[in-house]
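Ligand: zinc ion. Inputs:
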Amino acid sequence: MRYRLIYTLLATAQELLFGKKLFFDWQFGDNWALKSMDILDRDLAAAENDRKDGGSPGTKDQPEYVYRRQIVWFNTIGFLVLHLGALYGMYLFLTSSMVLTMLWTMLVAGASAFSVTMGAHRLYTHRTFKCNDWVKALLVFGQTVAGQNCLYVWIRDHRQHHKYSDTVADPHNASRGFFFSHIGWLMVRKHPEVIEKGKKIDMTDIEMDPYAMFQKKYYKILFTILAMLMPMVVPFVFWGETLWNGFFVCFLFRLMTVLNLTWLVNSAAHLYGNKPFTNDIMPVENVYVSMFGLGEGWHNYHHSFPWDYRAAEFGQYFNLTTMLIDFFEEMGWVWDKKYATPAMVRSRVTKRGDGTHCKYARPQLKEAGAESSEAVEDDETYEELFWLEERSAKTAELVDEAQKG
Ligand SMILES: [Zn+2]
Ligand SMILES: [Zn+2]
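Predicted complex:
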């Protein structure tokens, strides 16, 4: 009875604060799984019914899935302690650490975050561009410093997240609310569907990658040396910072900050924002996540075109990772970048967008019988926003000139 009351109060507070968006998955109780399972297995169950007894297709006789949330207390208390340590680290960062230590912490945070966004995400998980070996080695090194589990697990989880987005087979299913998709998924036993479907994710390319497999084999020792010891020992040796500050500032505060920014892509960028490209999925465009997450918050676009190296429609707008990849390309270290053309984007927006796109509204004209291609006329200024297009045009000009001269 008391729990019911607490639950109702919390649920009401959540409703008031976050509207229809969940913060915690209290509302569903133990039965939330049934709800999400519908999305994933509705068609399967219907087909099965049809096959068995010629029964009517639909939701009749759907199997009952009972999932009980099992908290893993070791992880839960562990994350609590890590966050308290990180808060203390933030206090030390602001009050007692040396200026060089502050700069060093920011450098390690930045470099390791870029290794996650450019390396683990855009290079390894989605294969959006190709690069030479030392860039790859550098990114694997940086991803180890970020301490977000080994690449192999990171990539498998993320590929699974894209394949089964926001269903029960998604490791950080955002339909279970902000908290679950942010950090809660690391504090409970995995849903059986996550385990089941996870085994079927194609990882053959990673299994053939010597860097990723070396990191997987020696992950614990590599984590201890690169994510923990290296960041705290460098300030101690080179400019006499205390190891105490090194541990709390350069290790804990830095690691947990980058982790939380990464998690925001799974939580906030699936809940708070608009959907100009694909309206029937949860991921959204979130400018704040993009600002602090090095360009990974344009998430409706990213889930619409996961193979686009920009992970956003406009490469340059709050998208530091794209800028870095382009810089690497200028230097000749990166090549074969894949990206969606304006025509592809327009087609997707007009077919499946929510109507909030800056240029291509979903044509209401369509109802009047006009073709979507007619409804959206080409606009020079819009095309100019595509710096990619702009640049390829420039390149063509240069090539022309060179040929003439
Ligand atoms: Zn996502
Ligand atoms: Zn992705």
